[in-house]
Amino acid sequence: MPATSDGLTAHRTAGRPACRDTVVELHGEIDILTAPSVTARLDALTSAGQPHLVVDLRSVTFMDCSGLATLCRARRRALNLGGRLGLVVDDLRLLRLLRLTRLSEAFEVYDNFPGLPVMTVTEPPPGLDIGVPA
Question: pTM for this structure?
Fold first, then answer.
């Protein structure tokens, strides 16, 4: 399914280990301008049943606090219905943002699709500049 104008694609997993998950691929910037449309789409996916979502953030180039709030809202809605929400993150800046806000403790964070072990979010190796001030 191609990405929509709001930078979001959702599809059911097929042939992956967590076959009942819906994968939500986010693209580009998730900020104060794009968060409302992403929130609306994630709300629709977490409105009924036991939503099992995996949000793929590998194509996200920037995320601000409104993007984090959108993810937290979706996680809370999924949990309230007996579901879950995991994140696929491979960008060191996003990983650090999750760690600094302690959201890495709240979300299941993967570096690839579920079925693989959950990542432990730690500091990058010494000397690796990830472009985010400490």
Answer: 0.74
34-82 tens-digit pLDDT: 999 999 999 999 999 999 999 999 999 999 999 999 999 999 999 999 9
Angle at 41 between CA 101 and CA 109, to 5 degrees: 35
Q: 30 is written with which tokens?
A: 């998730």
Q: Which of 40, 43, 37, 38 is nearest to 57 (CA)?
A: 38
E strands, 13-130, in order:
22-30, 52-63, 84-88, 108-110
Which strands form 8-12's sheet, in the order they lie side by side? Answer: 8-12, 22-30, 52-63, 84-88, 108-110
Query: 70: Cβ–Cβ under 8 A, 6 or more apart, which residues?
Result: 30, 35, 38, 39, 42
